[in-house]
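In pairs, describe these two lines:
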Amino acid sequence: MQERPYVLYTHKLYADGLGSNYGIVLTSWIRGAFSRSHINLFPNKFQNGFAGHRFQVSAADQPPFIFRIRSLDSSGMGQLRWDGVEMRLLNMIAQRLNFSLDITETPNVAESRSAVDSIQMQILQGSVDIGMSGIYLTESRMLETDMSVGHSRDCAAFITLASKALPKYRAIMGPFQWPVWAALVSVYLGGVFPIVFTDRLTLRHLMGNWGEIENMFWYVFGMFTNAFTFTGKYAWANTEKTSTRLLIGSYWLFTIIITSCYTGSIIAFVTLPAFPDTVDSVTDLLGLFFRVCTLDNGGWETWFQNSTHEATSKLYKKMEFVRTLEEGIGNVTQSFFWNYAFLGSKARLEYLVQSNYSNE
């Protein structure tokens, strides 16, 4: 039944470079009072930081967050240096908290699909203390490992070839869109048959008579271009039938209107540069029939898979996957028949484009 004192103590963390820590008795509580009444119950534990402790760091090349720089020294031996946003931040923290870094490159692990997964696996196994690779803060990663406060915000972005002015040699086709050209060809080639029928009241004379069909084509071509006219005995312009003359007259009026529109549009097209539509949204990618690819690792393959946004969900059904960022950029720059778009990190894409590509 005898009253015993409560002993209050703290720890001195990282007492030496090996990471040792030991307990320090502060005071005791007995008979309603402290045995040392003026002592600070909450002293600073990191008075000397980590006492020069050396942390094992696993880093993977992920510009602009982490740069891997290979060089040769004066003796010809290879050297490996690291730089980047996260490297500089960690160096500042190391100077402030008095610890050193032993940086090794993240090894390729057979079970992992990316460098981020390899770093996560190393930390879980305890083979390294810190991992750096521009790793995104996600709920699943924070459940398995401790992550620092985010140092920057990134977003998903599409990259496509730049929208440049159409070349001048395309001025011939430029004024009209392809549906208009298809309609014009159909009207001009199909419209000659009603003219023939009103003139002869039959189409039998065209069967096997390829010369007559050729004359019909050149008649239409001459009408559209005003290059030449036909004044022969059987020319439609010499017909005496009212229905044929009315049809040819309306045909001429239609041709004059189309020719005027075409001439004015081609002048404007040559004078002012025309730019194709730019891609600003997922809807544009679907409407312009782009082939879209993204990374098959790092979370990109699943992050948007169950999106409630209808257009994004539809886009992911035809999504293609590539192994590296460079491979995705290669699909965009080397696309020939189908336009390509690549979905990835905006920060990484901006750095890659600025450091490796010109405006062309």
